[in-house]
From TrEMBL:
<keyword id="KW-0315">Glutamine amidotransferase</keyword>
<dbReference type="GO" id="GO:0006355">
    <property type="term" value="P:regulation of DNA-templated transcription"/>
</dbReference>
<dbReference type="InterPro" id="IPR029062">
    <property type="entry name" value="Class_I_gatase-like"/>
</dbReference>
<protein>
    <submittedName>
        <fullName>Glutamine amidotransferase</fullName>
    </submittedName>
</protein>
<feature type="domain" description="DJ-1/PfpI">
    <location>
        <begin position="1"/>
        <end position="162"/>
    </location>
</feature>
<dbReference type="InterPro" id="IPR052158">
    <property type="entry name" value="INH-QAR"/>
</dbReference>
<dbReference type="InterPro" id="IPR002818">
    <property type="entry name" value="DJ-1/PfpI"/>
</dbReference>
<dbReference type="Pfam" id="PF01965">
    <property type="entry name" value="DJ-1_PfpI"/>
</dbReference>
Length: 207
């Protein structure tokens, strides 16, 4: 079972690495990080790099396509080499998935028109410009397309996918291995819950 994760400059690290930590445990899983060309790819801050081991031209099919997001995703909404590759992977995939603003790339590739989908709450207008209907859920299944909300929701999505791929016992075993038992110290993980001063700080930028 090949899992293909495309990388691009200024991706969000946890969008890719969170689901990777889940899906790599599935029976027969082979995870391939893919980019325009093999080599290191910088995350959104440039402080962390992941190594792509294959180029888009080298990967002609996959069972699971997992598209991360990040600031770099918005810069690629008209990048036909990447969008065309996403379309080709989707044609034969069992599951086509995204995390955070990776959904915008699925939308730009024409895969979300008429579907319900989720993404980071700050990108809902862009998502809907591609014909999708934004749904404020952590994970949204629409046929074989699965979208996850912002960043940490990718782990939830990957576990839900593991259930469908390998069954609930394996999925729960993976959850136990990574000790995914979240108990956040604050209840401010969505705009609906965060206090106004927190939303204001995010609007101004954290740095």
């Amino acid at each position: 079972m090949r899992v293909a994760i495309p990388l691009f400059d200024r991706f969000t690290a946890l969008d890719a690495v969170g689901p990777y930590e889940v899906l790599k445990f599935l029976p027969g899983a082979e995870v391939v990080f893919v980019a325009a060309e093999p080599g290191p790819v910088r995350d959104m801050d440039g402080w962390l790099t992941l190594a792509a081991t294959a180029a888009f031209a080298d990967v002609d099919s996959c069972d699971v396509l997992l598209v991360p997001g990040g600031p770099g995703a918005r810069a690629l909404l008209a990048d036909e080499p990447l969008l065309g590759w996403i379309r080709r992977m989707h044609e034969a995939s069992t599951w086509t998935t995204s995390v955070c603003t990776g959904a915008l790339l699925l939308g730009a590739a024409g895969l979300l028109d008429g579907l319900a989908a989720t993404t980071h709450w700050g990108a809902t207008d862009v998502l809907e410009s591609f014909g999708a209907t934004y749904t404020p859920e952590r994970v949204v299944f629409q046929g074989k397309i699965v979208t996850a909300a912002g960043v940490s929701a990718g782990i939830d999505m990957a576990l839900a996918l593991a259930d469908r791929l390998a069954g609930p016992t394996v999925a729960q075993a993976v959850q136990l291995v990574i000790e995914y038992d979240p108990r956040p110290p604050f209840d401010s993980g969505s705009p609906a819950k965060a206090p106004q001063e927190v939303r204001d700080l995010v609007a101004r930028g954290l740095r």
